[in-house]
Design a protein that fits this description.
Helix content: 40-55%
Bound molecules: ribulose-1,5-diphosphate
CATH architecture of the largest domain: 3-Layer(aba) Sandwich
Number of strands: 10
Strand order of the largest sheet: 3-2-1-4-7-9-10
Structural class: alpha/beta
């Protein structure tokens, strides 16, 4: 079990387990197994803390851990992580026949919606590679496997990609109480470009990526990763800034697609806090 703990934490840190949903699922499954094998409370909390610090901008994982630890209902929490079918149902109608869809990075929530669309009608995709870890390649591969024609761009080609698009769809790592969305670095810049071409911007997410701590005035940390990912040996005096994520202002987002429906960012926050009051409750307890 020790080896399994180390391996899971390592894979999350190295982004081998990638994307908020996969991270949350791997974390909860690991804790569930620890509990089932009789680990004491202290050990489970210790592993939970290690999981949380592996990627600091993942409130989906944090919510799941808090609720699972508080209620001991690991299977219910895993059920919440597995709400993708409802997300697909809400997101798929946004993509019309022959549309061009732009996306950035790799979001399993977005690719699942697009695979659902691909089962029914034809559309084309535009994908940016997502330096420095190239998660866009995974997106391009999955969509091509689903029979979707894909054009693939370096990140600085996003404007050209967006000029041809009918809709931009990205994932989320967090949605804050003020309606800001956090997603892969570049997301706000590309949302701004999309706005310039009147391309609507949709964020596809499980509602448990809402960060309840942001409602108590806590700043959600933006993960800053190592310089080596960007530049192995930069010259002395060069400070490589490698933020993994950035915030997107709510006015740049036309809709948030979740298992609860399609909402504007502020309506989304109301919907998730009404539907799941336990998220704030659990965060309050964890704070105290
Ligand atoms: C991934 C990323 C994804 C969200 C949502 O960043 O920004 O858009 O995590 O993914 P990284 P999902 O590659 O650094 O983890 O929809 O799969 O939860």
């Amino acid at each position: 079990m020790e080896e399994e703990v180390e391996e899971t934490v390592r894979k999350i840190e190295r982004v081998e387990i990638q994307g908020a949903t996969n991270v949350a699922e791997a974390g909860v499954r690991l804790l569930k197994r620890l509990v089932e094998r009789g680990a004491d409370e202290e050990r489970v909390d210790e592993v939970a803390d290690r999981l949380k610090s592996a990627r600091p901008t993942e409130p989906f994982l944090f919510n799941c851990i808090r609720v699972a630890r508080e209620t001991d209902e690991y299977d219910r929490v895993l059920g919440q992580i597995d709400r993708q079918e409802a997300i697909d149902e809400n997101g798929a109608p946004l993509v019309g026949e022959d549309d061009v869809v732009y996306t950035h990075c790799h979001s399993s929530s977005v690719t699942s919606v697009l695979e659902t669309v691909a089962d029914d009608r034809e559309f084309r995709a535009r994908v940016t590679e997502t330096r420095p870890l190239y998660q866009g390649r995974e997106t391009a591969r999955e969509l091509a496997d689903a029979g979707v024609p894909v054009r693939f761009y370096v990140d600085s080609g996003a404007r050209i990609a967006l000029r041809e698009a009918d809709i931009m769809m990205i994932g989320a790592d967090a949605v804050l109480d003020n309606g800001k969305v956090i997603n892969k670095i570049g997301s706000e810049m590309f949302a701004e470009v999309a706005g310039g071409y009147d391309v609507p911007v949709y964020v596809v997410t499980n509602s448990w990526k809402y960060d309840p701590m942001s409602s108590f005035g806590y700043e959600t940390e933006i993960e800053r990763r190592t310089a080596e990912e960007v530049w192995g040996e930069p010259p002395e005096g060069v400070d490589v800034v490698n933020y993994a994520f950035e915030k997107i202002a709510p006015e740049k987002v036309d809709g948030i697609v979740s298992e609860l429906g399609v909402h504007e960012p502020d309506e989304f926050v109301d919907a998730v806090t009404d539907e799941y009051p336990e998220l704030k409750e659990a965060a309050k307890t964890a704070r105290g």
